[in-house]
User: Fold these one by one.
Assistant:
Number 1:
Amino acid sequence: MFAALAAAVVALLPQDPPATTGSSGNLLLRGATIHTGTNRDWPGALSSMHGRIHGAQTLDPAVDAQAIELPFAFVSPGLIDAHGHLLSLGGMLEEVDLVGTTSFQEVVARAVVKARTLPKGSWVIGRGWDQNDWPDAAMPHHRELSAAIPDHPVWLTRIDGHAGLANRAALQLAGLGKHSVVGAGGEILRDAAGEPTGVLIDDAMAAIRLPPLSPAQVRQRLLAAQRECLRLGLTCVHDAGVSASTLDVMLGLHHDGKWALRTYVLLDANERELIARGPWQTADGRIVVRAVKAYADGALGSRGASLLEPYTDQPGKRGLVSLPKGALLELAQRCADSGMQLCTHAIGDAANRTVLDAYAAVQGAGRLAERRFRIEHAQVIAEADFARFAGLGVLPSMQPTHLTSDMPWATARLGPERVLRAYAWRRFLDLGVIVPFGSDFPVESADPRRGIYAAVTTRGLQGGPEGGFRPDQKLSREQALRGFTLHAAYAMFQEQGLGTIEVGKLADFTVFDRDLRTCSEAELLTAKVLLTVIGGQVVYDGRER
């Protein structure tokens, strides 16, 4: 496929932002309040020509344009999710949905329902369980699952994607038993007898070899994910950890005219050949390949995040290291040499320090800040390391809904002092650091309304401490929107083309039925997406739904 599409892609100079071209979208929006993302609203109607924002408030009658009346609506620069996983989102829409389960028994029951629809011996796959939402908050044992589903291998991934539960059949297929061992980057949880409980953490998860998806299945899942993103008002997604085969299918969809979503691709760190190729994009700029995704540690919920000091609720445990400093520096140098942006998952304060140290050691012409290397999540930061982000020009790519999901147990994991150095997006902003926002879907909901709500309230959907969990980190509505617009655009080298509504920029808009800057906090979660516009073309219309 790459050879067939050679004519459809163009190389990018590593030091230059992608030179994008718009679609032929000519559009006129009238009657709405238009938030430009700058210091003043747009006056009057908003028009686009050939996919870019036009200065005139009316269009020549000779121009074939779509005119839409939007009384009382609110137009924002197109919302961008700076960290998501499209293929996983599409898979979650098809597989066993375990999000919101309140007990292990409910997890088993949902898996049983799915198993009854499948032939014996086929895999039952699901995602979304979180033991912290169960009465005893303990990691599960496969016994109950294996008894309920003996004739299928079962693999149920934890909500953060950093742990999973296998039943007996799946463990046997993987060859995992009492004497199995894994490397330092993973862990097999065991019961009192030393037998695997079925829970595998981080690198140990690789032992479960699921049947590979066919290109047709990948295509179906990507299209399902695209539909969901457009429905939620997202105009662009930074797709984290993309394999060559998945990218191949995405390019095929683009070639067939079926890919509308702007996509900034973070390649899987194992795709050495594609990384060495350097930055490139489709000729229309709809898909840009310029970044690489790596992992430095695991997740806080499964105690895989790498901490400088032990977990408060499990003394002696400091988490897992996925990529030691030497390997991380080698990858960072390869990315720098190829003009690629490195985006490294780091949640614990030890992992964040390791990544900062590796980034600081990268050699080459130009300042590190010009490379816009990122740390994905940047969730727990040592006191001395906040200023290093600003000094090095490293971007903390953060997900506000991680705070609201972790809120019930974060203090137990980290303790009352260390938790004050977590989820600290306002502290970064006060240091002058650009903070792109995303969701990490399907770990969290892809709905950007939830991210905006979390950032401005530091409360969860079901409430939380009076005044918020981290009230000192609350943002204004404009700051929260900027995280999902201009700052997310900057994180993909696109602040000249996206992120604000200005003449000449790409005509990407998200239209809501109410002003997100002035509505009540509760209405942030219920505001309806009326239109999603990309390149001047309406790609989702929710007005009559």
Note: The mean pLDDT is 93.
Number 2:
Amino acid sequence: MTRVLRGLGPRARAALVAGLVALAVYANAPRNRWALDDVGIVLQNPAAHSVPAAWAARFSPYWPVEQGHPAGLYRPAVILSYAVDWTLADGAPWWFHLHNVVLHALATGLVVLVATAWLPVPAALAAGLVFAVHPVHVEAVANVVGRAELLAALGLLLAVLAFRSYRGADSRAARVGWGAATVAAVLLALFSKEHAVVAVAVLALDAWLARSAARRWGGGLLAVILGCTVAWLVLWQTIAAPYVEGVIAPTLRHLSFGQRLATMLPVYLEVLRLLAWPLRLAYDYNPQVIPQRTELTVVAALGALVAGAVVALGLLSRRRAPAVAFGILMAAVSYAPTSNLLFASGTVLGERALYLPALAPALAAAWLLASAWGGRWRRIALVGLGALLAVYSVRTVTRTPFWMDGPTVLIESVVAHPENYRTRRQLARQRAMRGDSLGALTDYLVAGELFDRDASVATESAALALAMGRRRVALREARRAVALEPGEPAATSALVNAYLAVGWTDSALTAARAAIDHRPRDVTLAALYVELHQWLVSPEWQQGLARARLEWLNGRRAAAVAALNSAVASLEWDTQVDQVCPELQTVRAVGDTEATEWEQHLEGALRRADVACGPD
């Protein structure tokens, strides 16, 4: 090893040392197994089990659609890496974890190389060491699905280094080569995680901080990368965007922009704490770990003030401390897509999203060391850095087993944060799977008390209560779910079943019809309506109209028209118009406008049956 180190240059030696420390601090990670999303994304995902399957799924969402929650994510590079791992190790989880650790070590080495643009090698090494052992990285490294963060970070850091070489290249051939390398690195990041959409801003930031007469600005290549980003956005819009609405964090769902700010501004204080002193960690920051706030508070104002001051410090440090400026502004840019400032995302706060933002404390600590290196504060700076690395390392090593497997994460989370409603819901699901229905229902109800704005908790508790014969509890929870998410199919189904259980058939029909009014083109609701009429043995014309809607929504137009004509023809002479017209209105709503083909079929059937119902 000594000979190898001597054969390398100072920058390479520092990068290698930092990478080895990263490997050492996560030496216990390969003992972990599958935890939480690992199961759905890797263990139960056929696309992650072979390279041909991963390639065939290259235009598919990250979450398998057949699992019911594709989640609006598109990460084919990550799925391909899982497929390679599965092929090499026959699905052994230790190999996947080892791969993550190696990727973290590579990213750590790149941090050292990036930092040497502004810092002497010893200080750059210090930045790499802080980054290597920072406890906020544990979720990204020790949980298999954290690989998306690792690959995206690796791509962005490689892009920064390649872009620097492109801007300093002397020959056209070198510029073409480094330009292609930059684009390839950006594409790796983009196809690994969505927040790499900020790649152009990251490269422009680095060029702005390091610009000199010896280097060109690189505007042409930035334009190419911007074009690649736009093309990726179009691809993402086609493949994953239709599923985005369903992944907004329940804490932020249905909040106005002002209310979202009231909730998120205090979170930025927690982000800064995690970056500076991450000894208290949590895998989930849903209420009441971080509460939902709908009005601006003093804490929110403080969060805005502190976050703004940190960004201002980054801007003001450009000349005297470009390393600090890069760390702070890189953190701000890379965190922006998941900050819930511009738009609501699927998480209020996730530690894995802070993987790249951890550059801020790493480079700040390195700059402080470099500033004190030649003065009387050198020894104090070294002792302080050593103490920080020791504390961080111990916390990282002790935190890694938290991600051993799903039950471990759940138990440890409930113990550490009993106020988290989401862990209570997960505990309820586990108890229900083991047959402990009473315990599961209790946990569901506790989760609903802790945070009463998540319709899925109410829906699941209603279904369980109904299965247990607790009809009144089921009805109360189902009503709460529908009030939170009008027209949501699962909530509607729970309410309809609860009404049927207590014998309120008219209320069941009204609830189903109201859901259709909210989502007239929802196939699941249309099928529910057909089943409801069949169960109630409704008149033939009602069942026929419901079938006509469903057939039309499923694209079976001939069958839909036949069902419509049959239903209208079966109307009895004494059928009241006030009974017929509400049903016809649900049928009419299938069309987009009155001039659609469906509307023409409907009007023709009504004329033949001599029934008059207006469009409203």
Note: Residues 2-402 form one domain.
Number 3:
Amino acid sequence: MLTDLHLRDFVIVEEAHLELLPGMTALTGETGAGKSIVVDALAMIAGGRASGDVVREGAERAEVAATFTALPAAAIAWLEEQAIAHDGEVLARRVVGADGRSRAWLNGQPVPLQSMRQFVDRLIDVHGQQEFQQLISRDAQRMLLDEHAGASASVARVATLHAGLREAERELDSRRTAAANADARRELLRFELGELRDALTGIADLPTLFVERKRIADRGRLAEAARAALALSYDGDDGSANDLVARAQAALRSAAAADPALQAVARLLDGVAIDLREAADALRRYLEALDVDPARVEEIERRAAALEGLARKHRVRPEELPARAAELASELDAVENSVAGLAQLDERCALLRSQYRAAADELSAARRAGAADLATRITTLMQSLGMPGGRFEIAVATTPESCAAHGQDVVDFLVAANPGQSARPIAKVASGGELSRIGLAIQVAAAARTRTACLVFDEVDTGVGGATAEIVGRQLRTLAQTGQVLCVTHLPQVASQAHSQWRVAKQSNGRTTRARIERLDEGGRVEEIARMLGGVDVSAQARAHAREMLERGSGAANERPAKRSRPGR
């Protein structure tokens, strides 16, 4: 419940403090006095858009603060989710500077405007003339029906399934497109991979193959060098290194016996002789290896040439061909798996489609049940609002083959304003007065099911008068039995039904204009309602009529709203 509303430098209000009571509160005043300023302030506290234009001329900033108590469960749950401390009471405050910059707080904790909006939406529900204009939209009609039918959970489930189905279908389409080209790609990959695997079979080390190829190509020069080295080191007839070492060993053999110091040198020469013999053996084996079978030469050349050709084809170096083969194998697996996964993905789409249709059918059933109940309520309200032959219908047309995030239904609000007329779409109802009354009936019926603690009606009684206006007031007073109702009105018949009343008045000194908002006592209410009845000059007869209306209004129902609850006070 909204218990306090404080305005400072807001539009033309210098400062105002409203202590609001349970039940129905009427906000009245002369035309142009700014009765809707309170509604505008609530819109600002609810996170609505606000610019520097809301700042009173000459001031630096505008401020609106609202205190809420007796919070509903949804609001408490939100506060706890956001870790905002409270004791069952919340002060929502918003400041807008003349430069347009805006800040918001909940219980002194700074919050984004989006958070402010989420919180206050759980507490206040505003109904105005613009809202009815929005109800001409089929989307707005469907959402209002869903709210009345209590189908929010079903709507959310249908939307979730629709999103999952659309995502799965997009993936399936992508896979199918890829599969359309998969056959040709798969065959190419298989061919190229086969080429590489055949060329690489039996080759443990590619660099070794190419080294061997080079050695065979240069074997004449290599053999010549090896023979020369063998001759010089061991097998030469003109004094090889081995012969020279043998002579040196013989020269030291007798001398080393006389001087042990030469024995170490003799051992070194023995080692050299051994190394020369091993080197000669290695050179002989090397020369034997250079004598390659012509068939082997041809095989090495063929394989090396094939590998070089494949390397050019795949634009890699020959030693990178094994890695390229691994890449092709991985791509081939991916192509084959993508085709194999089509069946599973198709089954998943079918399952999601089945679940979506089941959820959509359940939602359609809830909408039809809710439509019957809401149409009956609105019809009753229309007839009580001066349209005795009026009839309201809600058509729910289901198209099974359709698939939308909101389900498979098209919702239409239909109206027959007079007996004998066929029901037509609400947008085609011509009479402005009829539109106002139908809109009010819809809003009252919708508000009766709202979960918010405070209902605000901004001049929803436009276009009605007389006995119908009194009925409007009674309807609003009835709503106030279960929640708080704030009503901006220009009709005395409506204002007289309120439990309390505030008046908005303009004051001007010729240079500046200010709006003053004051709570009316019993005498003030008589004067205000008499003014609303009789105009500028209030007669004694108008005052008597005003008293009668207030007495009739207070006795119209045997209820009294619950006392204001202020936890912790």
Note: The CA atoms of residues 369 and 419 lie 25 Å apart.
Number 4:
Amino acid sequence: MSAAWLLRRGFDGGRLRFATRTALACCLAVLIAWAMGLEHPQWSGMSVWAAAQPLRGQLLEKAFFRFAGTLVGTVAGVLLVLGAPLHPGVLVLGLALWVGLCTWAGNLQRGFVAYGTVLAGYSAAMVALLDTAHPDRVLHLGADRLATVLTGVVVATLAGYFLAGQGGVADLRARIGGLLADLLRHLAGTAPAEGPALLSRIAALEEDLDPHAAGSLRSRREVRASRAVLLAAMPLLLRAEGAAPVPPPLALRLADAAGALDRGDAAAACRILATAMPEGDDDLCRLVQALAQALRGWDAPAVPPAAAPPAVLHRDWIGAREAGLRAGGAMLLFGLIWLATGWSFGPFMLLGLSVMISLFSTFENPVQMMRHVSAGQALGMVAAILCHWLLWPLARSELQQILMLAPFLMLAPLLAGHRRTMLAATDYSMILLLMSQPHLPLQEGLPDLLLKGLAVLAAPLTAWAGYLLVYPVSLQRRQRHLVQMMLRDLAAIAGNPDALARRRVWQARLYHRALRLVRLSERLAGARDRALAQSLAILTLAHAAMRCHALLAAPDTPDPTRRAAGLARRRLARIARDAGCAGRSLDRLARRLEGAEAQAIRQAACGLRQVAPAV
């Protein structure tokens, strides 16, 4: 079948090939785990789907955190089961606390580290809940869990390593170089580019950095150097917005540096910027020199410069706290219901819930994801029941059961390759495997299979309700959290007398939150322009607060200017209570300054109109 034929029917050839390779590796892992005598060989297939990645570095890193998270979670699960004889509630309470804690910590992290942390939570549930009738076998179950996961991880890594792509680092560097060139021309006044458009491009590039960091120390250094360049570009972008034009000699040098970046010669651009010394504008000089320093590290990321901007990244403390409470509360509530009713399939429901309520809380829009997850799990449940009911009664050995299961596993690539069902494919495979432990003689009839399937399917539906009703998760709410945290940062900068000493840390965190706000808002209809304006306004206000600190610290600042700067700083620290007073204080300060300084303060006062509705 040609790629054009597949594309016309909604299939993506690349995804179809990747999913087919993963499904074949899944079948192989189940077969190997069974041949090794492991009790739950289907868990190896689940690990293959969980660890598979299209890029080599991502494959290696996720495989590592898959095993590390499982190891920690298995130990926690064993300890919980060993404590259960004291009182049945110990298991439920301990599991709720553990899943809640891992969910909270996972939401404060990024990338595969977050995945491994959340995995540690629900891996404990898998060990503690799947064989509750035989707590004396928990050590055997834990060892079996570790062995099957390791088998799946090894098979996925070997199957994908030589076929996985390397990642487009060269393309990423070209995009960063093009962005910097456009920014320098915008600063020089020789290009029609606008600040909001450049900010949007910086946000998109910053989001694309993390996938390239996976798999090697060299990749991490490359990403760290790239992020340093983007952070150094942010204050120059703010300087270009509404400030006085740069002197013609400097504008010419900036244009020359942009041309060097267009040619891919970062070293030449660095030399040009390092000698670009504007007269009468010390602040602009400092910003240009900072960009030159970051470019030097970007040109040779193996030896990052000591003066590179710190990578203080945004952490969603509000969302993490809510996610932890939601996950722990859901596990506690339904665990107590299970203890009270004694429902035999309650552990399956709790196991699925531990995954749904924790893992998907790290997604930007878990409510939307739950629709696809529920559909995939429903399909997996139907496939498992059909396999158990129609085919497995004909099997005379566990090997035949695995071979009969394989055609159902090979349906997953068709789901993964189509644009409408690609988000449901992994959950289809996971539930199919979870419900399909090869074992003879068969002990479950059709009614038991239906009840087990309904228990499994209840998990995503319950999690869906949790995401809708308990601390509702939406892109709009995440956007409001970001604006709130940025305003708190602004107030903290203004109110901290030692802010100048921590300038680089404050700026790095605030810049990263602004980029996250812009990127998040671009996924919301009609929210992009407002988020761009709010981000630029808050960043400009933060620079104004820093300037107030600098004026207060300078010994030669005239007393009237010192008093105006002090008043503006104090009112910015109370911006949540009275944004109007802060604006008037900034206007008063701007009248006592001259040139670019006065223009920057006026720009900050104007920006208060953008953030006032969010205060």
Note: DSSP finds 26 helices and no strands in the chain.
